[in-house]
Design brief:
With about 200 residues, the protein is α/β, with parallel strands linked by helices. Helices cover about 45% and strands about 15% of the residues. The chain is built from ten helices and five strands. Strands 2-3-4-1-5 form a five-stranded parallel sheet, with helices on both faces. Strand 2, helix 4 and strand 3 form a beta-alpha-beta unit. Helix 1 packs parallel to helix 2 and helix 7 crosses helix 8. The two termini are about 25 Å apart.
């Protein structure tokens, strides 16, 4: 719910393919950055489903690609970005365009960032690249200068408490929020029993 206003402001130009070709969604972990990115990607592709990372990884959304560090690694390599570039140049299977999500964008090594820069400078028609990063990303200035920056703020304690109680009603969320902060999606993912 804390992302609703931000989503309302962004989704129309993205759905209509009138936005920047590159977006950088930045903010703290656990506040819904990836969920916002997935919702915007679904709108761009005119998908009528609530996208999640598993749908993309399983190929249920053929015009969307998710780039994360390979299993057991902490960086996104140049080979992954080269693969992404090849994907973005292919014709859209559903005719609505192509979307790439890179999470966390901070994990790209210098060579990967430079390779991404080339596609950001000359994006193929009807493509959208969404980078997701922490608040203090270490992306090169050349990459940052070619994307629209979207700051995602932490929800208030009350918004966090309300959302957590709606998805996992438990006594004691307030104390957990006081210790770990207003990071509702992270707290929910870790689980009440684990945190308590």
């Amino acid at each position: 719910t804390w992302l609703n206003e931000l989503y309302k402001r962004l989704h129309k130009p993205i759905d209509d393919h009138q936005s920047a070709h590159g977006l950088l969604i930045k903010g703290d972990q656990g506040i819904g950055r990836a969920k916002l990115a997935l919702s915007l990607a679904a709108g761009f592709l005119s998908e009528n489903i609530d996208l999640d990372e598993e749908d993309i990884k399983e190929g249920k959304v053929p015009d969307c690609k998710m780039i994360n560090p390979d299993e057991g690694k902490k960086i996104i390599s140049i080979d992954q970005i080269r693969s992404l570039k090849s994907f973005m140049l292919l014709t859209s299977l559903k005719g609505k365009g192509k979307v790439a999500l890179i999470n966390p964008a901070d994990a790209m090594n210098r060579a990967a960032s430079n390779s991404l820069l080339k596609i950001l400078e000359e994006p193929p028609k009807d493509t959208l690249i969404i980078l997701i990063s922490g608040p203090n990303n270490n992306l090169p200035k050349t990459v940052i200068s070619r994307v629209q920056i979207i700051e995602v703020n932490r929800p208030t304690t009350e918004e966090t408490l309300s959302w957590l109680n709606a998805v996992n009603p438990q006594e004691g969320w307030r104390q957990i929020i006081e210790i770990f902060g207003s990071k509702p999606t992270l707290l929910n993912k870790l689980g009440f029993d684990y945190l308590n």
